[in-house]
Structures are given as C-alpha cells and as structure tokens.
Amino acid sequence: MKWEISFSNSSLKFIEKENITEGDVVEVARKTILKFQGEDLNVDIKKLKGKWTGFYRIRIGKLRIIAEFNFDNFSVLIEEIDWRGRVY
Question: Could you give phi then psi for residue 24, rounded to 5 degrees?
Fold first, then answer.
C-alpha cells in the first residue's frame, strides 16, 4: 500500500535551517513503516506518553523525529524534528 508522508511547518523549518533533505526524513519514515510491518530493520522507535500520546519518537544519532502514524489511512505526519534535548 502507498503511504502518504506529510510534514508540519515546524519540521519543514528545521529541515531548511539544518540543511537536511526531505528525502532523508522520508527514507527514515519508510524504514519505520517497514519495521512496524515486521521487517527486521535497525530503527530506534519509541511510543510516546503524556502530551505526545499517539506519537512515536524515531532516534537517529542525536536527531529526534516525532511522528504520528495512521495505520487506517496509511499516512504519516512528521510533527517535529529537532536535536536531542530540544524536541520534547
């Protein structure tokens, strides 16, 4: 199934400011989807609690991506991207 990946304004600003490509983030989201589907990939995912209930944290070194996965509609919203300690 084809997944739709969208970005919040704050995540797009971070991508532009830090000179990261959207393609890199899309690739991480794609790998995360495959991990959820049972593939054995090295992706560090954590389900979040509190005000971030329903979201997942994806860790790539010191970079953190907060994303919401909607498995019914096959969509991903990249809500926040930031460095460790500043994202939450």
Answer: -65, -45
Question: Do residues 7 and 76 touch, judged by C-beta distance below 8 A?
Answer: no
37: domain CATH number is: 3.30.2310.20
For residue 63, list its beta bridge partners.
Answer: 60, 83
Q: pTM, whole model, 2 decimals? A: 0.92
Domain hosting 48: range is 4-83
11's CB contacts (< 8 A; 6+ apart) are 25, 65, 78, 79, 80, 81
pLDDT at 16 over 80: yes
Q: Is residue 17 part of a domain?
A: yes
Rounded to whole angstroms, the Cα distance separating 41 from 13 reads 28
The total number of structural domains in the chain stands at 1
Q: Strand (E) positions, 1-88?
A: 4-7, 44-47, 56-60, 63-70, 75-83
